[in-house]
Design brief:
Layout (H helix, E strand, L loop, with lengths): L2 H7 L19 E2 L6 H4 L2 H4 L14 H10 L6 H17 L4 H18 L4 H15 L5 H13 L3 H14 L6 H11 L3 H14 L3 H13 L3 H14 L3 H17 L3 H14 L4 H13 L3 H14 L3 H13 L3 H20 L5 H11 L2 H14 L3 H13 L3 H11 L11 H13 L3 H14 L7 H12 L86
Helix pairs in contact: 4-5, 5-6, 6-7, 6-8, 7-8, 8-9, 8-10, 9-10, 10-11, 11-12, 12-13, 12-14, 13-14, 14-15, 14-16, 15-16, 16-17, 17-18, 18-19, 20-21, 20-22, 21-22, 22-23, 22-24, 23-24, 24-25, 24-26, 25-26
């Protein structure tokens, strides 16, 4: 039975109505997160909200996927595929089961995120709309699914809308808050991030919550606390896929700290836990490049792009090729990036931030400025401020660029993340403006944070710092750092004061956690062997995709 036929039987409106005053404020908020979706979409799948609960799924893989997702954990790809098939088959016979439509829609979102296949997102939207039409009032499952879908598409305002609507209906359902945290962060509302995290930690504990804490702590610059949260989360993970996700984030954080050997081991552990965790294979490529093992890094990136073609990985491989003089190979990756962005756009994904970054360095900087100005109005986050400032610099407008570079590093507006790239961008803008003291300070900070933060920019940073020379005798460089006129704030989202730009002494978040820990926590990574090869698959691992178009929601 086709989806259109199912809809006709339901005697429902032809399209899902927009939230309106008569429907309760429930359908009025929106929010989500893409990477976090694999850890937290799960609360959509099992929480009872239908008047008549749907029958339990068949035992086996589908049942394991539902159980994992209900606990906020990530299911394996094989189990997720089985769940999709199970719900598709069930809905052919029970087309009015709103909860099963919501489960199917959420599973489509997660599979699309986990496989970098945005073609699943229109299918997810269709399934979730049917669920909401079948039961317009009180359908928290569908609202959470729509939140996750909006986040996966980088539509953070819509994610915020649906997420807040879900919270109004079910304020104690903890799985909504991680989605909201990600959306608030991308919208530059860091005060709301703090409130949502506080509520989340009161409602629930466990691996998924610790992983979310770790991400927030990382953004606040509390790197030791972040790493403690992530490794604890890996120890408490209830599925191999969830453990892999936590270890991957620990690897990302360790690489950002300028410790690529430790990062490589975290990524290797993640792949040992879940060989299908392709993001960790890309992480291996990044770490290997930082260690100077560029041939192995290229192998890792090529392996991951064969099965997980995210455009940002094509950009990273292109820049790696460019750094070793393979211009034609780099161009091929940049062409792939454009194709992937176009394909994602056809499926509702907004890659404006990534495309703006790419155009600033490898395309048309003025086009990048235009694109990123629109993104700033839509999502005024630290990441957008940094990208817009850099694009303005590349387009030759360093005075305006400095406003956004300062905004990206301003603790008053969330700029507390310890990022070598952001520090370098600000320092280079200052250097072009002949502000040698601030430039020396920020470029030096970038290289202290991570000496190999970029195969293209790290060598330039080292050259720039050498050209700036040592500060004048006496420790004062004689250059006063100007305070640029503040970068404009989106009218819809005024930038709030960052609630915790510095953690008070004696209030370590890790110290506030429950004392109980697993008897056998994940061991910290051991030093990598100097010549070890990455755990990259010789060929793409087989993935059994669910049958398409004939099933409901397809």
């Amino acid at each position: 039975m086709k989806t259109e036929e199912i809809e006709a039987e339901q005697q429902a409106p032809a399209a899902v109505p927009e939230p309106r005053p008569g429907l309760s404020p429930l359908v009025r908020g929106v929010l989500i997160s893409a990477v976090a979706g694999s850890v937290t979409v799960g609360g959509i799948l099992l929480a009872p909200s239908s008047p008549e609960p749907a029958p339990a799924p068949a035992p086996g893989s589908a049942n394991r996927a539902v159980a994992a997702e209900a606990a906020g954990a990530a299911a394996s790809l094989a189990d997720l595929t089985a769940l999709i098939r199970d719900r598709e088959a069930y809905l052919r016979a029970h087309p009015r089961d709103d909860r099963s439509w919501a489960v199917l829609g959420a599973a489509y979102v997660e599979r699309g995120t986990r496989t970098a296949d945005s073609a699943y997102y229109p299918k997810a939207e269709r399934a979730l709309q049917i669920s909401l039409k079948t039961r317009p009032a009180g359908n928290v499952d569908a609202l959470n699914g729509l939140t996750a879908l909006a986040d996966a598409r980088h539509d953070y305002r819509t994610a915020k809308k649906w997420g807040e609507a879900s919270v109004k209906l079910a304020p104690k359902r903890w799985t909504t808050y991680p989605l909201l945290i990600d959306a608030y962060g991308r919208l530059g509302d860091y005060k709301a991030v703090g409130r949502a995290l506080e509520t989340l930690t009161k409602l629930h504990s466990g691996a998924a919550v610790m992983a979310r804490e770790g991400q927030v702590y990382r953004d606040r610059g509390w790197r030791d606390d972040a790493l403690a949260s992530l490794t604890d989360a890996a120890a408490l993970a209830s599925t191999p896929s969830e453990q892999a996700a936590c270890l991957h984030r620990a690897g990302e954080l360790t690489w950002e700290r300028g410790e690529p050997a430790k990062a490589l081991n975290y990524f290797t552990q993640a792949l040992a836990a879940d060989p299908d965790h392709d993001a960790s294979l890309a992480g291996q490529g990044r770490a290997l490049a930082s260690l100077g093992r560029k041939t192995e890094a290229v192998q890792a990136y090529r392996s991951v792009l064969a099965t997980y073609p995210r455009p940002e990985y094509a950009l990273e491989l292109g820049e790696l090729y460019e750094s070793i003089g393979f211009g034609d190979a780099a161009k091929a990756q940049y062409d792939l990036l454009r194709k992937r962005v176009a394909a994602d756009g056809a499926n509702g994904v907004d890659d404006s931030l990534l495309l703006g970054r790419f155009e600033a360095d490898h395309g048309d900087p003025r086009a990048a400025v235009t694109r990123l100005r629109a993104e700033w109005k839509r999502a005024p986050s630290v990441q957008t401020a940094d990208a817009l400032g850099w694009a303005l610099h590349k387009a030759g407008d360093d005075k305006e660029a400095l406003k956004y570079a300062q905004r990206a590093t301003d603790p008053e507006h969330g700029g507390t993340v310890r990022s070598a790239l952001i520090a370098y961008h600000r320092g280079e803008v200052e250097r072009q403006l002949k502000l040698d003291g601030p430039a020396r300070r920020h470029i030096g900070e970038a290289l202290r944070i991570n000496p190999a933060f970029s195969p293209l920019l790290s060598p330039l940073a080292k050259e720039a710092l050498a050209a700036l020379g040592s500060p004048p005798a006496g420790g004062h460089d004689g250059t006063r750092e100007p305070v640029a006129k503040a970068a404009p704030t989106s009218g819809a989202h005024p930038a709030p004061r960052h609630p915790e730009s510095r953690r008070p002494a004696g209030e370590s978040p890790a110290a506030r956690r429950p004392a109980a820990r697993p008897a056998a926590p994940v061991a910290p990574p051991k030093p990598a062997a100097p010549q070890a090869t990455p755990a990259a698959p010789a060929k793409p691992s087989p993935r059994q995709a669910p049958q398409a178009p004939q099933s409901p929601g397809a």
